[in-house]
Amino acid sequence: MRGSRGTAHPLVASFARFTERMARFHAPAIVGRLPGESGRVDGQNPGDRGLDRDCNASGTRALEPHTPSWRSCADMTTETRTPADDSTGQGRKSRGLVSSAEDRAAIDGHRLAWLAMAVLGLGVFAVFTVILMNHVLLPFDQPLLDAARQWQGYAPVWRVISESANIPLIVIGVGLVAMLFFTKHHREAVLVALVLIAVTAGSEGVKQLVARPRPSGTDPNIPGVVYSFPSGHVLEALTIFGIIAIRIFRSPRSPRVIPALVVLAVIVDVALVAVARVALSAHYPSDVIASAFGGAGVLGIYGLLTHDHHEDSTPASRREP
Known about the structure:
mainly alpha, 9 helices, about 65% helix
């Protein structure tokens, strides 16, 4: 229908404009909707458009012209951040795998270090045992013994140091086992008890096996077995104090400087006990040297057997060997 001047009828023109507007208004929602999805999300109709605002407090994306209304803020955030999140996740996963591999390598390295310490220490001790069983004279024994005897003027001091590695050491060893037991470290308490028993019994057994006489001029007031090799004082002192030092080093509560001081104190104490035993003519220098290696080997076994138990609770910055 047309007017008198050839133009479209007003009703037809109005209907055409309405149809065109509806087509422009609904086309984006229809095209952007995924198959099988309804046009309604969170109570919104696809035709609810024309609002130009940001996401509201509930996280629903604000409706804008030419933007499908069914897509929420969470959808848009996921779509825009998914590649970055994926790459971040992959990066974290890769770093985790690398960290795990490094931790495993560190654990294997520490275990190897303890094993090397045990093999080297006990190996050297065994070599000394075999040599002295065959009554081989070691060239450094007599010169070092003569040099130590020049310090016999300090005999009272040497005797105090020597006796500190006797009865007091037994008390410390028993106290260590009791402390481990009452603090719920039952397995380690049993292990430490077995180690101390093995060290004491092994020392006495090797004395009988090698049957090396003590140096001439031995103080008759010194108690103990008449044989010289090995030095039970040095062997037991290094074992007991060494176990304590290892436990302090592994403790996450102690500052880094404390373990270093404890290790230094153990080395000084064992060295003084060794010098005291030689100065008192109770042992040859080879006796105390071999005993020091034997004690280090025992500590290597202890460290190896308890390594896995302590590794999980030790901070990375304080990982042993």
